[in-house]
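Whether sequence alone determines local backbone shape is best considered at the level of individual chains. For completeness, the protein is quoted in full, as a sequence line and a line of structure tokens:
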Amino acid sequence: MEAKKVRLTKEKETYLATLYGKALDAAVEHPILGDRFAADAVARIDYDFKELKLPKGGEISLPIRARHFDQWTRAFLAANPESTVLHLGCGLDTRVYRINPGPKVRWFDVDFPDVIALREQLYPERDGYRRIGSSVTELSWLDAIPGDTPALVIAEGLMMYLHEKDGTALFRRITEQFPRGQIAFDGYNGAMVRMTSRLATVRGAKVELVWGINDPHDLEKQVPKLHLVEDIPFLTMPDLVSRLTRNWFSRSMAGALGRLPFYRNLVRHLRYEF
């Protein structure tokens, strides 16, 4: 496939940044995620990736985040070989190729039409796989999806960009449409939403984060069918800490921060059942 000249707005560069972080990981001797599909995509895009403002440590944190959601995905599909996967706000992530789901899995990648158009240039078709070009909050995209199997919803790096009323409406619709399933996403609390937005403004990026989840149990009240089953503090995940801390001082600082509830609750990986 010929390289494509990609011209993106500042907002859309975030899709390339997450892809690039995984591609950098794939190039090292002992990768975390080993996402060769991301590396292949970066090689085909005619873009100066060195100009991207990859977050500090992004070549570590992004693959670790993706690997954790991959683990949850594999566990769900092992227990539910006939199921539906809704990968919301998929960006340029290559999860469907990394997971390589079985023949009875229907997999839908959902994102804005321009992102889906870029995916169509970069990634091949495969059986059981469909791309849907739509805002995830325009719920009509769900009309064409059968609700006759268990469903796994993955929303990595998405929910903090949605307004709370839109996110809860989306989850209510999904829990009503499918007989049972799971919803997995990373949630920022209010402090992290404010800090990230301010830092983005300083860097000149137009990033607007709006939904902060301070208590994951609140979502159970807003979407009555949901039940929280896992709440993992991302910033204190052992592999993340060990790979980001290079010396005794940074390790001791990480240990001290990890004991603070404020720090532990900044970013969570949340998994709900319905």
Notes: The chain is about 40% helix and 20% strand. The chain has a mean pLDDT of 92. The beta strands are 4-5, 45-46, 83-88, 105-111, 129-133, 151-155, 181-188, 227-233, 267-273. The first strand starts at residue 4 and ends at 5.
